[in-house]
């Protein structure tokens, strides 16, 4: 599933379409395509894993889910979930969740929850975590209401870098560890974006899909953790479990 940094890259790819008029829209998404015809894109935004194509009175919300993709002026053999047709260009989204938002976006989204947004708030994230004292930290880092844009790569790398076991309980984290976690999740996301653009992202992984701990030189554990049963890679020696 594309994480926040990859959605920032999609946002940059779509920037040239700002100010362009949609001649027509098609696809098999269950939306009213007539509401998009003749509309001019006024802005492009992101929130975590959501891409937002904004018009004057409506917004297309695109979530690429686990296997979603997009193509500009190209098509796949499968039908697109949504195609936007412009005077000279086409944008096609595949295997994505597509919705139309008619409410003001400030009423729909908490921008301070997005770990890559300038409005990202450590204080608000800390307050939200305090409201879920029994939550495991591996689940917390995937909770989009708290860490919008964080995914399994960011989860694993953040926990390894801060030496926190994924099955640690949120309320048991020492204040210093909690502060380190909140700082690192945003820092790693920024680095993720830089490395993704360079094409070097996987070279910087220290835990995700790795077999050996680079610090302890012993095998890493690989296990489905948390309520979400997502894959975690961790070292039982140097990542402390707080419970």
- The CATH topology annotation of the largest domain reads as Helicase, Ruva Protein, domain 3
Beta percentage is: 15-25%
Q: Which CATH top level class of the largest domain fits?
A: Mainly Alpha
| Number of beta-strand segments | 10
| H-E string | HEEEEEEEEHHHHHEE
Tally of separate helices: 6
- Radius of gyration, whole Å: 20 Å
Low-confidence stretches: none
Give the domain tally: 2
Strand order of the largest sheet: 1-6-7-5
Characterize the main sheet: 4 strands, antiparallel
Task: Please explain how this structure is put together.
This protein has two domains: 4-108, MutM-like, N-terminal (N-terminal domain of MutM-like DNA repair proteins); 112-234, Orthogonal Bundle (Helicase, Ruva Protein, domain 3). The protein is 26% helix and 19% strand. It contains six helices and ten strands. The chain has helices at residues 4-14, 105-108, 122-130, 137-140, 152-161, 175-198; strands at 24-26, 43-47, 50-54, 59-63, 69-72, 82-85, 90-94, 97-101, 221-225, 230-234. Strand 2 and strand 3 form a beta hairpin. Helix 1 packs across helix 6 and helix 5 (152-161) packs across helix 6 (175-198). It starts with a helix and ends in a 9-residue tail after the last strand. The mean pLDDT is 97.
What is the structure about, briefly put?
The protein has 243 residues and is of the alpha+beta class. It is 26% helix and 19% strand.
List the helices and strands and how they pair.
Layout: H1 4-14, E1 24-26, E2 43-47, E3 50-54, E4 59-63, E5 69-72, E6 82-85, E7 90-94, E8 97-101, H2 105-108, H3 122-130, H4 137-140, H5 152-161, H6 175-198, E9 221-225, E10 230-234
Antiparallel strand pairs: 1-6, 2-3, 3-4, 4-8, 5-7, 6-7, 9-10
Helix pairs in contact: 1-6, 5-6
């Amino acid at each position: 599933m594309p994480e926040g940094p990859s959605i920032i890259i999609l946002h940059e790819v779509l920037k040239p379409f700002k100010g362009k008029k949609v001649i027509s829209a098609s696809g098999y998404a269950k939306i009213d395509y007539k509401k998009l015809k003749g509309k001019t894109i006024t802005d492009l935004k992101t929130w975590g894993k959501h891409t937002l194509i904004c018009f004057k009175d409506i917004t297309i919300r695109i979530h690429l889910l686990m296997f979603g993709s997009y193509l500009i002026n190209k098509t796949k053999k499968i039908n697109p979930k949504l195609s936007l047709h412009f005077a000279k260009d086409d944008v096609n989204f595949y295997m994505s969740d597509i919705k139309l938002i008619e409410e003001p976006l400030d009423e729909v989204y908490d921008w301070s929850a997005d770990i890559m947004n300038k409005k990202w708030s450590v204080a608000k994230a800390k307050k939200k975590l305090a409201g879920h004292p029994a939550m495991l930290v591996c689940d917390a880092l995937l909770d989009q209401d708290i860490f919008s844009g964080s995914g399994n790569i960011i989860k694993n790398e953040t926990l390894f870098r801060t030496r926190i076991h994924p099955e640690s309980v949120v309320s048991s984290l020492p204040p210093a560890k909690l502060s380190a976690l909140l700082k690192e999740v945003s820092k790693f996301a920024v680095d993720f974006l830089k490395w993704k653009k360079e094409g070097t992202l996987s070279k910087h992984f220290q835990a995700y899909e790795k077999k050996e701990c680079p610090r302890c030189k012993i095998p890493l554990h690989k296990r489905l953790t948390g309520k979400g049963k997502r894959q975690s890679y961790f070292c039982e020696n140097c990542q402390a479990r707080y419970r």
